Amino acid sequence: xxxLIKSLENKNCIKIVCGAGNKNLDEIExxxxxxxxxxxxxxxxxxxxxVIKAARNGLARVIPDNxxxxxxxxCSIGLKGDVHFRKAVINKKNCMGCNECIxxxxxxxxxxxxxxxxxxxxxxxxxxxxxxxxxxxxxxxxYNESDELAQLVKQNISCIELHAAIHDSEKIxxxxxxxxxxxxxxxxxxxxxxxxxxxxxxxxxxxxxLSRNHFxxxxxxxxxxxxxxxxxxxxxxxxIALAEVVNGFNFxxxxxxxxGTNLKTPELAQLCGVDYNGIAFxxxxxxxxxxxxxxxxxxxxxxxxxxxxxxxxxxxxxxxxKN
Length: 323
Ligand code: SF4
Ligand code: SF4
What we know:
Blueprint: H1 2-9, E1 13-17, H2 25-38, E2 42-46, H3 49-62, E3 72-78, E4 86-90, H4 101-104, E5 110-113, E6 116-119, H5 129-133, E7 139-143, H6 149-152, E8 159-163, H7 169-182, E9 186-191, H8 198-209, E10 217-222, H9 237-249, E11 254-258, H10 265-272, E12 278-281, H11 283-293, H12 302-318
Parallel strand pairs: 1-2, 1-12, 2-3, 3-8, 8-9, 9-10, 10-11, 11-12
Antiparallel strand pairs: 4-7, 5-6
Helix pairs in contact: 2-3, 2-12, 11-12
The structure holds iron/sulfur cluster (SF4) (2 copies).
């Protein structure tokens, strides 16, 4: 835990987000092995026992036992209504079978079988790229709500993150208070501006910090979620704008940037004079290694693993935080 706090205090914490709703165990194990080998020590995963096991397997493959204590897992939990925890569902009545959605899904979650589309829910991360492209409005979403808090707080993890991008502030506060009273590690609250004005956000955060000691929690400024495909400034514009607002609140909290983050994010933050303690990289980081981890011979071919590690090392070097 100390090493995690230290990286936040040093303002160079990097977190790789495996996908809050991602339950693709094979992918998670590979992603974590590659990024851990490249030097990342903080990983965000979904709050699921099998996912936690897969994450630990990924670490154990590349990190010696006596160093594992320096690597940290953060489990993300969602309340109903949060986009990070939704899964796509095909509305068969509306679907005209154009197949446009299949290549749009970077997760390869949409499968055609017997002339019928199916969603692999373990792979789906709720990014909505399929529904954005669907001209027939044939893709809906169902929301998964994590209701296993009591089990989760018993897991040996360093951080629990509550995704609070919903209307119901009371629900968020109740959940946060439960975690605050029952979990010893770091807490994180991921916020965005979708439902709350800046004033309402400040009110919500003010109520939340009542239960926490100074610097025992992270505020994650989540800009445009699951939107870091391009290496441009625009993708993380919303994140930087929200972090600037959070800077202005002056809470005794660590600030993480997330949502649309890519290798341009540190530069944009610096240009805008925005202060932060770390960056969470999600879709951008995952997309970078997909060509390698999707190969069936990934574990057996050392060159594939080495190339994946090298490309991630270059990415991490180029986005060194100059805060
Ligand atoms: S894009 Fe829409 S209409 Fe076309 S196959 Fe996919 S779900 Fe059906
Ligand atoms: S495009 Fe996104 S939301 Fe749609 S099926 Fe694929 S992962 Fe799920």
